Automatic annotation (TrEMBL):
Belongs to the aminoglycoside phosphotransferase family. SUPFAM superfamilies: Protein kinase-like (PK-like). One of its GO terms (molecular function) is ATP binding. Monomer. This is Maltokinase. GO terms for biological process: glycogen biosynthetic process. Pathway: Glycan biosynthesis; glycogen biosynthesis. Keywords: ATP-binding, Carbohydrate metabolism, Glycogen biosynthesis, Glycogen metabolism, Kinase, Nucleotide-binding, Transferase. Pfam families: Mak_N_cap. Its EC number is 2.7.1.175. It is an enzyme of class 2 (transferase).
Length: 421
């Protein structure tokens, strides 16, 4: 397999640029940092950590002497040892993945360790989740879902730390963590993936909002508001919460300014002074506000509806932010703001329906206020955080879905015009 790895560089570079989870737009040299054969023979399964343009990525490659037709779409290149392909599409190899990783526990990694008390069934039929986002997820039977992170950052990982802490305080509305795939990298224990309880038959909030009856979704938005508030209360119990000093709001304003500069969004040149003025208004605010650990990337796609209740998933934080920033306490309203942005997306995707957006917003905030402080009591902070997310979204849509860029751009105009988005 090593010969194959040596000859893979160019083919991997071409393949990487086509992957939704690849953060760059171009690929320079792909350097294989660590290659581990998890399954020997034909088919073979290889785990790779590669360095590309200063970032580290995790890849799973399969190799077969003859590639069957149903894996033709996953082909990457031919090598003297056989065809190399994206192994996450290979159900046969993926059903052996967890067992192969478990057998490596105690080594430098990659290895899988179950959480204490978790009953993990190995060898179940495996399938890759069709919609790849920032990472790649595999479902085993109807029991487990393994999220494999693609861009790998050394250090404590919010998805693991938050789930463990939420479990310890008996939190509802989150999926149970069942195990962790990790490796020692740069001398630091590093999370490569998380195994969680799978919720069979669930629908994500985005699908429900955009394909179901719009009026029927309004009470669901209220229920979602209550669920988010309960998770916030559990996070505060688990990690503590504090009322920030005035200087913290200066920090928030400075942080938002820096993000606007760093995102460098040319489409917003005309709006920039008004956006910066909205951020500066934070400096005049007096609390009470709450700083605590939050979800960090909450939107309708991160809320799963099953058996009449909401479960929040993906506590990874915004994948583009450094881990240190994602692990820091933030305003609880950040999650509220990003969910409100999601309602705006749902209402302006297809035929715009501002009245429905407003109904969802009110219902969600009322639901949240039934458990914790009413987000509508902090309009200046809420709008600044919504603006920040919308600015990020303009950059995100330009990079990934240029046809959608009008949604966050329209929202920024409305927020600056004093309307609720
Ligand atoms: N516990 C779960 N049960 C059922 N489906 C899940 C679960 N967790 C995630 N999913 C599905 O997998 C998809 C991707 O998961 P997510 O954690 O959001 O990954 P990403 O970081 O790539 O966005 C979700 O949109 C959802 O459809
Ligand atoms: O789920 P991810 O962590 O990969 O989040 C990224 O992709 C999201 C889109 O899939 C993006 O969300 C934006 O579009 C959603 C509709 O598709 C909408 O509900 C969100 O409000 C909007 O921000 C997210 O911003 C990005 O980080």
């Amino acid at each position: 397999m090593n010969t194959a790895v040596d000859t893979l560089g160019t083919a991997l570079a071409q393949w990487l640029v086509g992957q939704r989870w690849y953060a760059g737009t171009d690929v320079g040299e792909v350097r294989v940092e660590r290659a581990t054969t998890l399954v020997h023979g034909d088919p073979a399964l290889l785990h790779l950590l590669v360095q590309v343009d200063g970032e580290r990525y995790q890849l799973l490659l399969g190799r077969r002497a003859t590639l069957p037709d149903d894996l033709a779409h996953a082909w990457i290149c031919d090598t003297p040892e056989g065809a190399v392909y994206a192994a996450t599409h290979d159900g046969e190899l993926m059903s052996r993945l967890l067992g192969a990783l478990r057998d490596r526990a105690g080594g430098p990694g990659p290895a899988f360790d179950p959480e204490p008390g978790a009953h993990v069934v190995h060898g179940l039929p495996a399938r890759v989740v069709a919609v790849e986002q920032s990472n790649t997820s595999l479902v085993f039977g109807d029991r487990h879902i393994l999220k494999l992170y693609r861009r790998i950052l050394p250090g404590p990982h919010p998805d693991v730390d938050l789930h463990r802490a939420l479990h310890d305080v008996g939190a509802q509305h989150v999926a149970r963590l069942q195990g962790v795939v990790s490796a020692h990298l740069d001398g630091v224990p590093t999370v490569l993936g998380v195994l969680q309880e799978y919720l069979p038959g669930c629908h994500d909030g985005w699908t429900l909002a955009t394909t179901g009856d719009r009026d029927a979704f309004v009470p669901e938005a209220a229920a979602l508001g209550r669920s988010v508030a309960r998770v916030h209360a559990a996070l505060a119990r688990a990690f503590g919460a504090r009322n920030p000093a005035v200087s913290d709001l200066n920090d928030t304003a400075d942080h938002l300014h820096r993000r606007l500069t760093a995102l460098g969004v040319p489409e917003l040149a005309d709006h920039e002074p008004a956006i910066r003025a909205a951020y500066d208004r934070l400096r005049t605010l007096r609390g009470p506000f709450v700083l605590q650990r939050v979800h960090g990337d909450l939107h309708l796609g991160q809320a799963l509806h099953t058996n009449g209740r909401w479960t929040l998933i993906d506590f990874e934080g915004e994948p583009g932010r450094p881990l240190e920033e994602r692990n820091a306490p933030r305003h609880a309203l950040q999650d509220v703001a990003t969910m409100l942005r999601s309602f705006d997306y749902a209402a302006h995707h297809g035929e715009p329906d501002p009245k429905w957006a407003s109904a969802l917003r009110e219902a969600f905030c009322a639901g949240y206020a039934a458990v914790l402080d009413d987000p509508r009591d902090q309009p200046v902070l809420l709008h600044a955080l919504e603006l920040d997310k919308a600015v990020y979204e303009v950059a995100y849509e330009r990079a990934h879905r240029p046809d959608w860029i009008g949604i966050p751009l329209g929202a920024i105009t409305r927020i600056l015009g004093g309307e609720t988005a």
